Amino acid sequence: MSDTFTESRGGETGPGISRENADVGRGNARSPLLLTLLGPLQASRDGLPLPLGPLKQRLVLAVLLTRPNTPVSLEELTDAVWPDDPPRTARKNLQVYVSTLRRVLDPEDLGRLRHGPGGYVLHLGADECDTLRFEDLARRGDAEVRASAPSRAAPLYRQALALWRGEPFSDLAAHADVLRASVERQHARRLTVYEAWAEAQLETGEPAPVADTVDEMVSRHPLRERLRAAQLTALHRVGRRTEALAAYDDCRQQLSRELGLEPGAALQSAYRSLLEEVAPSRSRGGPTGSRLLPPDLTDFTGRERELEDVSVQLGREGGPPVLLTGPAGVGKTALAVHVAHHLAARYPDGVVATRLCAEDGSPRPWASVLAELARSLGRTERLPTDREEATAAWRSWLSGRRILLLLDDAPDVTALEPLLPPSGTTAALVTSRSRLPCLEPVHRTELPPLSVEEALHLLGRIVGHSRVAAEYTAATRIVTATGLLPFALRAGGNRLSVLRHMPLAQYADRLEHPLEALDELASGGLGVRARLAGAWARLPSATRDTLHALASLPGPAFTLSTAARALGSDGRNAQRALEDLIDVGVLAPPSRPEVTAHVAAGPEAERYELPWLTLLFAREQAAAPGTGR
After folding, report:
1. Which of 281, 425, 276 is nearest to 349 (CA)?
2. Is the C or the N end of the chain the one with fewer CB within 10 Å?
3. CATH class held by domain 206-285
4. Does the global pTM surpass 0.85?
5. 293-443 belongs to which CATH class?
6. Helix (H, G, I), strand (E, B) or coil at 121
């Protein structure tokens, strides 16, 4: 239920980061040359991009960057550039590539790229390459940990993690085994540094940054117990105990199923601490009165109409469940949590939240979720194992109690039905990307993107209202390029809060470039692409095929006939395909211009618009190997 990882880099100071430590990340301000490979391979001098030439020349540079300041033999370079059948002119071609790179990277002939007995060596300082800076910061963080100074270690680790802009060598790794191996090493190192940061951050007494970012790392490394222990501890300490219990249960099941193991000592210790905290609170407050919610966002912005609508509906005793729907990243969970905090006083017997999907997006077993809810609310007796009997027992127990259930990220009606309360004093607030058309009775509230004014206000709260006011036009371009989605706005805003020297217009240019936008909307490894990938994985294959086809359109807006041509089908089948996209929350219902005497109200008057970032991601997927497109 988190949105951002507020990292610090390039002089930005975050929680617990002193000005002295913040200066560590400013190496590129002192050095005119900067090579970055924690993302697409890029080079710049004095902030201006350098031309790196054709694919094979970039491969040569990439291989040299896997071992900076270390000789790389001619044979290794040849194998990387021509893995199958090198031409007779391979040596000559390599010399040309190296000579060109030398002119680009070392125009003053400082000996940066040399040939010696062991091969070619690319000489770089720690302030000239992001991987070298990453290692320098991580080593300094390790030294502070050994000195028992977590408050100094955490910001150093955090600055190291903030250097990641995406997948290392994302544009080149598929072409060479040596680069793929380097990517694996970089990911392993990033995981170790993240774990060290999380533990140091927890030691500082500020667990929120860990709780806000750990889920993305766990989704990549679900069986890593050191990481899981940090996740459990962080969720516990920010009050998200329901999620902490679910995280432990998920890890325990995966370890048992995939490795035949029980959780290790560190994870079990974190779990015991959670149980010891929960038990005394229940003994003091009785079996009811639990309040297990994620923290409310301090910069929650806008949504006045939806907030009033949901609050009024939940205030009607005996009313149906309230369903918040909308696409990934639109802020459904944030609004639901905000409402739950706002209305908590109305529900003295308990306000609890739980997620209905696991970290990989798969539906959690109903029995596990139901047991977690019952345990969180103080029910001690075991529920029946039969679905119908357990549902009846759960609803009977809820009857007469004033409880608010926040059921987050419902994948379908089947996962949701056993958890819903009976009509009466217990209320349910549900979020889902799908419209759940089979769920009745229910009050549906569709959550649209923010208005431009709301988005600008949120951006101002992240980067500073004065900065937005000074470049208002550029700020408007930025919020428009994020699709007015809060999650994307937070990712972009956090990046701008780090890059305080960057004019907003320059960042707007990047976001408006179709090949750069998703790379730019990333914050410490947690970004829009990862969120969209999770949503994509949960779509039916037919729905993904529809998006593959729509990815060929030149822009996000289209009519039914345009979609039919892209899909290669007739209008009726195309309309059904678009309705499927609407049902799963990917596409908004069509807009229709005002009907006049001169404008007919037929199907072609309707205009559909695919969210811009979704379209960019669909284009990436359509271009990926194995899609058949």
Report:
1. 425
2. C
3. mainly alpha
4. no
5. alpha beta
6. strand
